[in-house]
Design goal:
Structural class of chain A: alpha/beta
Protein name (chains A, B, C, D): Formyltetrahydrofolate deformylase
Number of helices of chain A: 8
Keywords (chains A, B, C, D): Hydrolase, One-carbon metabolism, Purine biosynthesis
GO biological process, one term (chains A, B, C, D): 'de novo' IMP biosynthetic process
Pathway (chains A, B, C, D): Purine metabolism; IMP biosynthesis via de novo pathway; formate from 10-formyl-5,6,7,8-tetrahydrofolate: step 1/1
Number of domains of chain A: 2
Oligomer: homotetramer
CATH superfamily of the largest domain in chain A: Formyl transferase, N-terminal domain
Number of strands of chain A: 13
Enzyme class (chains A, B, C, D): hydrolase
Amino acid sequence: MQQQNLQRKVLRTICPDARGLIARITNVCFKHELNIIQNNEFVDHRTGRFFMRTELEGIFNDKTLLADLDGALPEGSVRELHPADRRRVVILVTKEAHCLGDLLMKSEYGGLNVEIAAVVGNHETLRALVERFDLPFILVSHEGLTREQHDNNMAAVIERYEPDYVILAKYMRVLTPDFVQRFPNKIINIHHSFLPAFIGARPYHQAYERGVKIIGATAHYVNDNLDEGPIIMQDVIHVDHSYSAEDMMRAGRDVEKNVLSRALYQVLAQRVFVYGNRTIIL
Amino acid sequence: MQQQNLQRKVLRTICPDARGLIARITNVCFKHELNIIQNNEFVDHRTGRFFMRTELEGIFNDKTLLADLDGALPEGSVRELHPADRRRVVILVTKEAHCLGDLLMKSEYGGLNVEIAAVVGNHETLRALVERFDLPFILVSHEGLTREQHDNNMAAVIERYEPDYVILAKYMRVLTPDFVQRFPNKIINIHHSFLPAFIGARPYHQAYERGVKIIGATAHYVNDNLDEGPIIMQDVIHVDHSYSAEDMMRAGRDVEKNVLSRALYQVLAQRVFVYGNRTIIL
Amino acid sequence: MQQQNLQRKVLRTICPDARGLIARITNVCFKHELNIIQNNEFVDHRTGRFFMRTELEGIFNDKTLLADLDGALPEGSVRELHPADRRRVVILVTKEAHCLGDLLMKSEYGGLNVEIAAVVGNHETLRALVERFDLPFILVSHEGLTREQHDNNMAAVIERYEPDYVILAKYMRVLTPDFVQRFPNKIINIHHSFLPAFIGARPYHQAYERGVKIIGATAHYVNDNLDEGPIIMQDVIHVDHSYSAEDMMRAGRDVEKNVLSRALYQVLAQRVFVYGNRTIIL
Amino acid sequence: MQQQNLQRKVLRTICPDARGLIARITNVCFKHELNIIQNNEFVDHRTGRFFMRTELEGIFNDKTLLADLDGALPEGSVRELHPADRRRVVILVTKEAHCLGDLLMKSEYGGLNVEIAAVVGNHETLRALVERFDLPFILVSHEGLTREQHDNNMAAVIERYEPDYVILAKYMRVLTPDFVQRFPNKIINIHHSFLPAFIGARPYHQAYERGVKIIGATAHYVNDNLDEGPIIMQDVIHVDHSYSAEDMMRAGRDVEKNVLSRALYQVLAQRVFVYGNRTIIL
């Protein structure tokens, strides 16, 4: 086997728990002469669900590998084989630059294995920043449109780029269920709060009024309900009485961008599994 | 002035903001030949309120000092002079030992300048632990009593010990407004969550169901509304998908006891000011 | 198979990395009709070493299970089968109570699956605390003894209790290499600093002089060199200019006890693997 | 007094501690009809030193204000009056983009009240990034030069821009004492470690070899000795056995940029006082 032909892929398995699953899956890999670079699994005993992420190296025959796995796995199994490649994303923004800026920097200078195919904004504000990085910025204004019309326009633009993920980097409008269903488990949002606290508008003002001593941010998948999707990553910082709502907002921006980029790092490495309203990160 | 006669006291001032306040107060201290060991102040520009904590050393004539301060301060000022002594507390518990155990250890072996006058429980569970530390444990059972009757019985026991503060160290019953009003700004609770999330019962199960990636605890003053008093201290720890609700509970216990004891440390040092629903910690 | 006969054990494997290891090991478990409750593995590609922790449930025939594993594993493999039982420890102390108190509380009231067989001190200071919890305290004074003699006396006392681990809960003397070699990978220390900073005496004073903004603690195995063993757990807290060395020490105590107890939790669950000077926690 | 003429300035006082200092200083401000927006002070009782930061609003007559303060303060006092304006910095870089990128973003899009006058690099690597933000990038190559010659060339370039501060944003060369002395208490460095651990080269590899469970970063003033200046800010993140040295480096970059930008925020607000080898942040 020549070194130069070796490929890396990630096998992801979700199935009903059963005895011998790890042996069955790794036996198949062994038979295909694939090296297991890293393997992580988790059994959720409450729901009787088995999750496994297997990072493989070797020469892949995807078709026979998947067929062999289908033969080894129980009914109702999901298995996916992903190339360990750079992923494509489209980023949605409104007016705030901090999360977008961090993603632009990391895409170009390292830290995230991601290609930003395009940035879509409902305002012109961030065009200059995006164009500085020689990337396309597309304005999809919501002016004079219903929410459905606007989301339709956005979806049309996004689908043109065939992204693996859609990142809401401080996109400040609520998305329609229809839009969300077009990108199942592909939309990732950064919420300016540690959910489930302070859902909705002006969370830093809510936090200030409540006199909290910590503020945070939550990165999560977007499903039908606003701010209710499966949580990927959360973090907080400490604040004190001297912080105004504006100070909290400024300090919170760093948490937001850090949490979004750390969440995205795990998603891009195919480590995040969604099951029900929870995530398993392997 | 002889070293041995020197006393330490903490002067706390809350008043409407006005020009020259710091000068006026420190001038009075200067005139009384009191050394300022530490001085911290804060102006809340939103409410136009001035807060100052002044740690003083010298020979005190409390009466003339307070009279001079009254002459120097504007209408509507509150000023308090506290001896920098050990404080007395009564602790309320139900069945969980971890917060109580930490307070018992720190009261006896250092870490908190506090005398535990008594521990009051609505169950017998923790009597043995308290008596190991040679402190009185008083059972005030709620069996067969209305909430009002039970709280009355408790208040009667507590008042016998004349505590400076009443600490709810995992006391798991809701207190009546009448009880709360008997100890204004004197009741401190540890809430097994980072407020305002997961108010009410079984917060760790709520947190598990929501799939959160951080859990926390909040120490706060108790006012009329359950879990709604001014927050003193909060902290969190990171959890992941492998945590069951029980694991979260176990890990959360350390956060709870740490947050309660850190909050109490600030309260005992007369550093915590309550204004509206917020605290200022100087 | 009757539910009541089921046992839980932890299988730990360390061996040279090779293709198909996970399959081989889990195939053996499968053949023995053992359920894998949890499985975690890690390959250190730098050293070519494979580590796996397998939590098993079923009816165990230890002898044939281990023989089957030996047949399946490559030369130079280490595999251990541990009952998932309560572990016994002996705790060594000097004068400080905070780590000991936390362990006493958690052993008795939950949080650590550990039986404290005895506490050994080189001073009488903590006898009262230990006896409050109805546990044996043994004074092994170092007065008038060489370090070797003292350590010999201690080892003799400790070995009488046949502990699984020896916990240094702020034991403030350096141990002889001879003592350390009698308890290989069984001695766990809490160091009042985040190693490798501030090795040696008075670390909080060193930290104060250096003007650091964070202080921390490190739990580690003890090997020949003071403060140089494999690190299990570390944590820090933020401090500022207002902290004296004594304030740092007081605040540091909570970090120390938290880190020690979290490290011990992982060790007791058979999750910590030592390899060279590093730990792998599965 | 007309609203539109009001100015904001920050008065910073360092002097030997003495009774009545706060009164004396605030009396002077009061006499000048200046509003105290915020006042913070600290007495270091070990060195007998008094530090005060006073944020003032009003109409300033700098000359008489400073003269009045000189009359009120003891011998050996330092007092400075700074306009609360945007500050100018020159940034020094080598090849790594992450800290520079964060500063560029925050200077242009908010988060730091700073004007980046120029970026000086000893490699061309980051020219494109700087020019994207329409700022001057100046290459000062060290090729074929002694350290003294190179530092002289850099100092000449830097002084042309008359910066308030010189930021080492991952500038990877050691500076000469001569260079450092030209910018006293004006050079701020981000060190890729939590000092005092892992001084010197390749700290992430040192950290990996030592098997640490936390890695961090330190922002500090630069004085004569490498990595030994007064610490302004530190933070850490948790890592585990699965991190290679490269993973630590990647994760560490976010800590580095966060710590540098938070330190700079405090410095720009004139909150950081240097005394000996420690900082006081008011």
